[in-house]
Amino acid sequence: MTADIVVIGSGPGGAVTATLCAEAGKSVLLVEEGQNLSLQSAPPFSKEELLLKYRNAGICIAVGPSKIAYVEGRCVGGGSEINRGLYHRAPEYLLDQWRAVFKVDDLSLDRLIPHFIACESTARIEYLHGDAPLISTRLRDGAARLGWQATEAPRLYRYGGEEKSGRKQSMSETFVPRFLAAGGRLIADTRANRLTRSGGKWHVKALHTPANGPPRPIEISADQIFVACGAVQTPALLRRSGLTRNIGNSLYFHPMLKVVAQFDEDVNNPGDLDPVHQIREFEPSFGMGCSISKRPMLGLAMVNHANHFAEIDRHWRRMGIYYVQAASGKATVRNLPFFRDPLVRVWQNGADLRKLADGLKRLAEALFSAGAVAVYPSVQGYPVLRSMEDVRNLPATFSGSDGSVTSVHVFSSCPMGGNEAICATDSFGRVRDADGLYIADASLLCGPTVVNPQGTVMAIAHRNATHAVESRFN
Ligand SMILES: Cc1cc2nc3c(=O)[nH]c(=O)nc-3n(C[C@H](O)[C@H](O)[C@H](O)COP(=O)(O)OP(=O)(O)OC[C@H]3O[C@@H](n4cnc5c(N)ncnc54)[C@H](O)[C@@H]3O)c2cc1C
Q1: Atom 3, ligand 1: residue with shortest CA distance
Q2: Is a pLDDT exceeding 90 seen at residue 159?
Q3: Are 353 and 397 in contact (CB under 8 A)?
Q4: Are residues 99 and 186 in the same domain?
Q5: Average pLDDT over residues 186-212
Q6: What is the structure's pLDDT at 425?
Q7: Are 157 and 236 part of one and the same domain?
Q8: How far is the CA of 96 from the centre of ligand 1 (A)?
Q9: What stretches pass through the bilayer (predicted)?
Q10: What is the pLDDT of residues 321-357, one digit of tens each?
């Protein structure tokens, strides 16, 4: 197969990039390892969704002295299909820091705002129409009683319309249809295994695995390639292809700890809208929020309190899941012979772990202020907390080795910028010393975003694709 441009990976970074290139009149092939499924093909946050749309059915582990269990999307649309769409623009101080340390040219909030707006006009951002669910407002009210700032996070969502709960603005609902309308071609069920260069072209060696036929190797040739496989798989693909300079050395997570809070009245009613409030008082150290709290998820979050499972049977409607999320946990990505997935090794230092432990205490404080009667931390060996006094007695740190730390946000494994000592690409995503090869996903971000990252991934992809179309392709 041939194309002017191949984009590998159809998550927010890849879908935005492919759309802009196709609309610029290029012949573009968007290659995706996972299946091409509609947003409705599995109920949100269900076992079916885990099996169909997550890599390894949701089981990926970064190993090290403290472990992080993380998840990645693996379907057309990538993480945008399975996430909650909580949305923020990157904070200004962060972009200023990236410009100063990584020497990213022409990066500031002012310069990025047109790209945020352009993405937001295709994938709409909205606040809830009507009242927030009680799981959400309890967190807001608890924070307010402590004098902390808590706000509703807007979402990549279109509320109203025919569906009572609204409709998520995932890539398969927004940028992918726009890409196809511009004449782009999408090939799903196809994993890129290696990139090579010869005869002035890039070649992608891939394996096409259709649902109803045998696997078939294919090769695609193109003038330009954008790699957008996500922050773990992008460095893995580039390293398999012999490209290693500053690639896969600086992956970061937003490590997360969860708790279940039990209240003295119902807060968790079937049919409620998703919870949306976040406490931002302690950023950039850590942020807090509420999670989807369906009954099976309560079971999972209570796994370290198995002798209290009967409470879920009796009182699950009084229970909600909450999280604290920090910005830390540096990791490397390396391939291992004979293994399909790369080895991710993570190091969380003492300060990282203390930050999470402190965040856990603050979260429990907010929940008791909101009227919780019990808080169950999802940490092995931790007791059920019944009062502020119990919160004060929690240890100042923890080991993180029991698998209690999880993450859904990964970035910065191949940072962009002019600082050649630490950056994998130039300031606009072109891989150093590799003409016509670009990175276009969360790998490019120079560090953790502190806030939910998808908005920043899309805006940076939009910025860099605009730059490529205007200055590099002619
Ligand atoms: C459960 C969950 C909840 C989240 N919640 C939020 C939230 O509320 N708000 C927010 O802002 N962010 C959230 N995120 C994070 C957000 O989804 C990611 O930041 C975003 O999807 C990253 O985009 P990306 O383009 O870098 O990569 P991805 O979305 O990971 O897309 C990469 C794509 O590349 C494909 N791919 C990988 N390797 C290959 C290969 N070799 N060949 C072909 N294709 C390949 C993958 O299958 C995948 O579809 C969440 C993520 C998850 C998983």
Answers
A1: 83
A2: no
A3: yes
A4: yes
A5: 96
A6: 98
A7: no
A8: 25
A9: none
A10: 999 999 888 999 999 999 999 999 999 999 999 999 9
DSSP per-residue codes, 273-309: PPP-EEE-TTTTTEEEEE----HHHHHHHTGGGGGGH
Q: How far is CA 308 from CA 268, 295, 470, in A?
A: 18, 14, 60
Atom number of ligand 1 nearest to Cα 78 = 49
Q: Work out how many domains the chain is built from and give that number.
A: 2
Higher per-residue confidence, 212 vs 118: 118
pLDDT at 300: 93
Ligand 1 centroid, distance to 465 Cα (angstroms): 18
pLDDT at 284 over 70: yes
Residues 142, 270 share a domain: yes
Could you list the residue range(s) of the whole structural domain that residue 351 is in? 55-72+128-168+255-407
Cβ atoms within 10 Å of 466's Cβ, excluding its own: 17
- Give the model's pLDDT for residue 162: 67
Based on the fold, state whether residues 5 and 84 are members of the same structural domain. Answer: yes
Residues 322 and 264 in one domain: yes
β strands within 46-200, DSSP E: 60-62, 68-70, 125-126, 150-152, 155-158, 167-168, 185-187, 190-198
296-321 burial, b if ≥16 CB within 10 A, otherwise e? eebeebbebbeeeeebbeebbbbbbb
Query: Is residue 96 assigned to a domain?
Result: yes
Calculate mean pLDDT across residues 257-283: 95
H helix or E strand, kind and range, residue 113? helix 109-122
Q: Domain for residue 300, yes or no?
A: yes
Residue 165 has pLDDT above 90, yes or no: no
Task: Say if 318 falls within a structural domain.
Answer: yes
Pocket of ligand 1 (CB under 6 A): 8-14, 31-34, 71-75, 78-80, 82-87, 191-192, 228-230, 233, 237, 408-409, 441-442, 452-455, 457
At 164 the pLDDT is 67
* 93 assigned to some structural domain: yes
pLDDT, tens digit, for every residue of 289-332? 999 999 999 999 999 999 999 999 999 999 999 999 998 889 99
Closest residue by Cα to atom 37, ligand 1, is 229
Distance in Å, CA 229 to ligand 1 centroid: 8
Residue 257, pLDDT score? 96
Nearest CA to ligand 1 atom 50: 83
Query: Which sequence positions are flagged as catalytic?
Result: 409
Q: Are residues 227 and 176 in the same domain?
A: yes
Does 372 lie in the same domain as 261? yes
Q: Which residues pair with 437 in a beta bridge?
A: 225
pLDDT value for 196:
98
Q: Measured in whole angstroms, how far is the alpha carbon of residue 310 from the centre of its chain?
A: 33
Per-chain mean pLDDT for the chain: 96
Same domain, 270 and 281: yes
Indicate which residue's Cα is closest to atom 47 of ligand 1: 74
**Ligand 1 atom closest to the CA of 456, numbered from 1:** 11
